[in-house]
Amino acid sequence: MKALLTMTFGAAILVATTGQALADAAAGKAVFDAKGCADCHYTEGPAREKIIDDQLAKKGPELWYAGSKFQKDWLSGWLVDPKPIRPMKFNDLMVENPGDHPKLGGGDAGPVRDFLMSLTSKDVKAGKVKPKKNPKGRQIFAKKMPCSGCHEYVGRKKKIMGGRSGPSLVEAGIRLNPDWILAYLQKPKVFKPVKMMPVFVGLLSDKDMLNVSRYVANFKPKKKK
Ligand code: HEC
Ligand code: HEC
Q1: Closest-CA residue to 171 (of 183, 187, 153)
Q2: Assigned CATH topology for domain 2-117
Q3: Mutation to probe ligand 1, out of 37, 41, 49, 104 (largest number of atoms < 8 A from CB)
Q4: Mean pLDDT for the chain?
Q5: pLDDT over 90 at 224, yes or no
Q6: Which of 13, 75, 93, 155 shows a CA-CA span of 20 to 30 A to 162?
């Protein structure tokens, strides 16, 4: 009897919570449209870019796989206080990122986050990449395939180093889903059919891609004492 009660009760809670999440995602979509976010971001996959002009015509990054790409807690914080991710302005290599991304109020950020987190890609397999400070990954990142030539990261003596043409990877370990990093390197056609970043398929083995993904996923802020 007790087991039965717990079961029915558990099921009721499950229904209540998933129902709530869906309601929030729908509310979030409404806010997303009302605030003009859709003017610069598309949220339905698959990727629409076919030629470089399609990429250059975009006013902001595609968000159709946002739920697979980002970490939920990071997204909550960024929507209310959006700090520049790309050192340079989107689709521009000469002008600095003006840091003028629209902000959401606290009440809107939750539902929009839930909407964005509901947008996932089946091409990201969960549980593949465990963040790790591995020397192999570091070698690939900083020497072999100089990812560091285009991406900022925290190097020796806690100094921010690296190139500025790609998105900053400083604290990528709290922003990006580790499994997405690997999927992104392995499946450029799915996530970025037209892109500025070189394709590493054929240059890096699957094992090396895993190593470098684990390394990047380990970029986290220093723990507060
Ligand atoms: C005028 C165009 C524009 C509008 C309007 C806009 N964005 Fe953006 N968005 C951008 C650009 C450009 C970036 C890249 C910012 C950066 O790298 O710092 C971005 C980045 C993002 C990101 C991170 C994506 C990534 O891949 O790095 C999210 C999430 C996001 N926007 C959500 C929103 C939401 C929610 C709204 C509505 C409140 C919104 N945006 C409105 C242009 C826009
Ligand atoms: C020639 C410059 C260049 C090199 C080299 C490069 N990248 Fe990139 N990377 C980019 C650009 C530009 C983007 C933005 C997406 C795009 O347009 O391709 C990007 C995007 C990314 C992203 C997604 C970041 C985000 O927030 O959207 C990750 C992760 C990444 N690169 C990792 C790597 C790794 C790992 C390597 C080395 C194996 C590497 N990159 C080498 C330029 C580069």
Answers
A1: 153
A2: Cytochrome Bc1 Complex; Chain D, domain 2 (1.10.760)
A3: 41
A4: 91
A5: no
A6: 75
The span from the CA of 86 to the CA of 90, in Å, is: 7
Name the residue at shortest CA distance from atom 23 of ligand 1: 61
User: How would you class 51 by CB atoms within 10 Å of its CB: exposed for 0-12, middle for 13-18, buried for 19 or more?
Assistant: exposed
User: 161: pLDDT confidence band, cut at 50, 70 and 90?
Assistant: very high
Sequence spans of domains, the chain: 2-117, 135-216
- 165-213 pLDDT per residue, tens: 999 999 999 999 999 999 999 999 999 999 788 899 999 999 999 999 9
Mutate to test the pocket of ligand 2, among 55, 150, 186, 216 (most ligand atoms within 8 A of CB): 150
CB of 77 sitting under 6 A from ligand 1: no
Pick the atom of ligand 1 nearest to 82's CA: 18
Q: Which fold has domain 135-216?
A: Cytochrome Bc1 Complex; Chain D, domain 2 (1.10.760)
Three-class secondary structure of residue 212 per DSSP? helix
Task: Please name the residue whose Cα sits nearest to atom 33 of ligand 2.
Answer: 147
Tell me: the pLDDT tens digits for 25-73? Answer: 999 999 999 999 999 999 999 999 999 999 999 999 999 999 999 999 9
- Tokens matching residue 126: 């969960």
Ligand 2 mean position, distance from CA 197 (Å)? 5
Contact 116, 33 (CB under 8 A): no
Nearest CA to ligand 2 atom 43: 197
